Amino acid sequence: MENGWTPERRAKQSELIKTWKPWEKSTGAKTFEGKDKSKMNALKHGGRGAMIRKLDASMADYNRAMREIKNTLC
Asked: What's the pLDDT tens digit per position in 34-50?
């Protein structure tokens, strides 16, 4: 395989992980600060965030109002 993981290596790694059982030691965030930080783990970018959508809508309203003013004056 091009990434170095042969089927045999995958099987061996799978067995090792089953002996380590890291999922039993995982507890997650306990403090509010930790929870605030961890909730951003899946965020890829802010383009779809609520604040950005509100800003986009506000800018669209502003641009629309500026066009109306320009059209009225010219």
From this structure: 998 888 887 766 666 78
Whether 39 is in a domain gets the answer yes
Number of domains in the chain: 1
Q: Phi-psi category of 22—alpha, beta or left, where left has phi over 0 and alpha has psi -120 to 50?
A: alpha
Range of the domain at 41: 28-74
Q: What token pair was written down for 15?
A: 């067995």
Residue 52 inside a domain? The answer is: yes
Distances (CA, A) of 60 to 20, 56, 67, 70, 74: 54, 6, 11, 15, 21
List pLDDT tens digits, range 1-27. 578 899 999 999 999 999 999 989 878
Q: Residue 43 and residue 51: Cα distance in Å, rounded?
A: 14
